[in-house]
Specification:
The complex is a heterodimer of chains A (317) and B (321).
Chain A lengths: L11 H31 L14 H9 L7 E4 L4 H8 L2 H8 L17 E2 L2 E3 L6 H15 L5 E6 L6 H12 L4 E7 L2 E2 L2 E2 L18 E6 L3 H18 L3 E6 L15 H8 L3 H7 L3 H24 L12
Parallel strand pairs in A: 1-3, 1-4, 4-5, 5-9, 8-9
Antiparallel strand pairs in A: 2-3, 6-7
Chain B lengths: L6 E5 L16 H4 L4 E3 L4 H13 L3 E5 L10 H14 L8 E7 L24 E3 L7 H10 L3 E7 L12 E2 L2 E7 L5 E6 L9 E4 L4 H14 L4 E6 L1 E3 L3 H8 L4 E5 L8 H13 L8 E3 L10 H7 L3 H13 L1
Classes of the chains: A alpha/beta (317), B alpha/beta (321).
The complex binds thiamine diphosphate.
């Protein structure tokens, strides 16, 4: 396993301060959008699934910001709201989508788990996006664009065989793809120890894929590690497996948490939003939060008024 | 591959000198070494990579060594290939082709002889093509990969050694070609020269074409007049074109390579009943492989899959109604 050391030089620290502000905006936006979504679900305005990223914002924001948004590609799964917002900040498009309105980023047809904008694609079947991501990486390599592809996986999804086929091919063909495992220790209701024999951290190593493992409590740490890893993937055109330990603070979807109160309380100690908020001046933070609150409120109101998509918006044959 | 630098080939054992289990790709890895990839035995990922490449603007063609192995890619076909074009509310194209040899007759046994198309028929935004030797399969393959849709391309194993029959007249058999909504050929054969109406309409596809030549010849001698319709596209079904050829014919026989239960022939028959209600002389007869495993033992296999004899006896059965 590689050790990734990051020590910003003093003149990088001002920049880091600005970045922290950017990260806070994104993380707060994600958290607030998700809380609104859960409320909207409870009030009956949303049907289907709502897998929130609450607790994983540092990972989503740290990783997505390390990418070159003009060309890099993101594949993700059912729990992708955070990555989507970090990628394109399309609050209206996301809320509209999840409320099933035609103002949604996919006209309300895809819903929470099936989102696409520019170079980001999500799908709701565990594991299946992984070979798609490897195929995308192969395409970009052949085209010579220099783009890398990142694919987000959960620990539960490491039970799918196609993931390992994809590890093998990505390494065999030296493809620029970052396998990004968000290990929150639980899959739906099942703890990791009931799903997996052995460790997840080392799984990709047997395919000769460089791997590293980090905690997702500090967005700056995730970001600098991700930058380093993304550079490696791009420069060497090789896959990399980054294992990020995170906490799922919310339910799996909507309100279906079976974990004890104590367990969730102890996870909240690691809330990355809490950690980053402490590093910002209170005044600035309040200003940021107020603006975002208003923005989200407006987006919700707009989605409430928007129409549902019609049959003519569905493609056939 | 010469014309389009985005055309990529992948599959198991497709490199020269081997050139694929059925040699379809022979020579290509020598000619285009950068664009032909031999893969591990990972069908789900072969399909998955194909989808990912198509999403990113390439035109990938993947070979599945045997059609039976397509089941390993079912999730990619159903939940990925067939979903991306429809679920994002945009006008995305997903040109990709999964090619695979199908069907029995070579003694390969239960897991290497099937025609599994019925598992994927009717999927929205996913096409299934089965060329016969009455069309040019290469041209159809190029058409599919130059188009917009993810496509399953079925190659009947017994058609590989056949000579293409593209003439308008060959002995007593006349061949005309129509084109469906997606511009895929619908071949119409007949075994009589004039404009009379046939006694029986046969609707079939793919490898059945190999049997139809001799069958139509023999029936002509017995003065049983046949119009046979062979659409290349199994799904979506070019039903308007099929109906146009069966219109006015009183007896219909539908033949498929797979076992007929819950299959392509059921769908064709239902659509033809709708179109020709009250105009038919007796029920539409459907035949196909027996609803059993396809045995390895050649003599027994011949009894299970569709043969000339089976088609002939079906024709005589229909004629007797
Ligand atoms: C193939 C497949 N099986 C089951 C599911 C249902 N499901 C959705 S999310 C989930 C848990 C996934 O856990 P994990 O990969 O750890 O991701 P997390 O939810 O923790 O982000 C399950 C079982 C699915 N979507 N796809």
């Amino acid at each position: 396993m590689l050790t990734l050391v990051n020590s910003p030089s003093p003149d990088q620290q001002n920049m880091a301060r600005d970045l922290t502000e950017v990260f806070y905006r994104q993380m707060y936006t994600i958290r607030k959008v998700e809380q609104n979504l859960l409320d909207l679900f409870a009030q009956g305005y949303i049907t289907g699934t709502v897998h929130t990223s609450m607790g994983q914002e540092a990972c989503d924001v740290g990783v997505v910001n390390s990418l070159d948004r003009s060309k890099d590609i993101i594949f993700s799964n059912h729990r992708a709201h955070g990555q989507f917002l970090a990628y394109c900040d399309d609050v209206e498009g996301l809320i509209g989508e999840i409320m099933g309105k035609e103002t949604g980023v996919c006209l309300g047809i895809g819903g929470s788990q099936h989102i696409h904008r520019e170079n980001m694609y999500t799908n709701g079947v565990q594991g299946g996006i992984v070979p798609n991501a490897v195929g995308a990486a192969l395409a970009e390599k052949i085209k010579g664009t220099g783009a890398i592809t990142v694919v987000f996986l959960g620990d539960g999804t490491m039970g799918e065989g196609v993931v390992y086929e994809s590890f093998n091919i990505a390494s065999l063909w030296s493809l620029p793809v970052l396998f990004l495992l968000i290990d929150n220790g639980i899959a739906q209701s099942t703890p990791k120890h009931l799903e997996h024999a052995g460790e997840l951290e080392t799984r990709a190593m047997t395919f000769a894929i460089d791997s590293a493992s980090i905690e997702a409590d500090d967005v700056n740490k995730v970001y600098s590690t991700a930058c380093e890893v993304v550079n490696k993937v791009r420069e060497h055109s090789r896959p990399f497996f980054l294992h990020v330990k995170a906490a799922r603070l919310g339910p799996h979807s909507k309100g279906d948490d079976t974990r004890s109160k104590e367990e969730i309380e102890s996870l909240k100690q690691k809330d990355p939003l809490l950690k980053i908020s402490e590093s910002l001046p209170v005044g600035l933070r309040m200003e940021i939060e107020q603006k975002i609150d208003v923005r989200i409120q407006t987006a919700v109101e707009k989605a409430m008024l928007a129409s549902h998509p019609g049959l003519e918006q569905l493609r056939r044959v | 591959m010469e014309k389009d630098p985005n055309a990529i080939l992948l599959g198991e054992d497709i490199l020269d000198p081997y050139g694929g289990a059925f040699k379809v790709t022979k020579g290509l890895s020598t000619k285009f070494p950068q664009r032909v990839f031999t893969t591990p035995i990972s069908e789900a990922s072969i399909a998955g990579l194909t989808v990912g490449m198509a999403l990113r603007g390439m035109r990938p063609i993947a070979e599945f060594m045997f059609g039976d192995f397509i089941t390993l890619a079912a999730d990619q076909i159903v939940n990925h290939a067939a979903k991306y074009m429809g679920m994002y509310g945009d006008q995305m194209k997903l040109p990709m082709v999964l090619r695979t040899p199908v069907g029995g007759g070579r003694g390969y046994g239960p897991t290497h002889s099937q025609s599994l198309e019925k598992m994927f028929l009717g999927l929205p935004m996913f096409h299934i093509l089965a060329p016969s030797h009455f069309v040019h399969p290469g041209e159809i393959l190029v058409q599919a990969i130059s188009g917009s849709y993810p496509t399953l391309f079925l190659e009947n194993k017994l058609l590989y050694p056949e000579v293409l029959k593209l003439e308008q007249h060959s002995g007593v058999i006349n061949r005309t070609v129509h084109f469906d909504e997606h511009n895929y050929p619908v071949v119409v054969l007949s075994n009589f020269p004039d404009k009379r109406k046939a006694d029986i309409a046969i609707v079939a596809y793919g490898g059945i074409s190999r049997l139809l030549g001799p069958v139509l010849n023999q029936l002509a001698q017995e003065e049983i007049w046949i119009t046979a319709c062979l659409p290349v596209s199994l799904s979506p079904l070019p039903i308007k074109h099929i109906q146009a050829t069966t219109e006015g014919i009183k007896k219909i026989l539908v033949i498929e390579e797979a076992s007929p239960a819950f299959g392509w022939g059921s769908e064709v028959s239902a659509a033809l009943y709708d179109a020709h209600a009250g105009q038919l002389d007796g029920p539409i007869l459907r035949i196909g492989a027996a609803n059993s495993v396809i045995p390895a033992s050649k003599p027994l296999e011949e009894k299970v899959i569709v043969s000339e004899e089976k088609i002939l006896s079906a024709v005589f059965e229909v004629m007797a109604w």
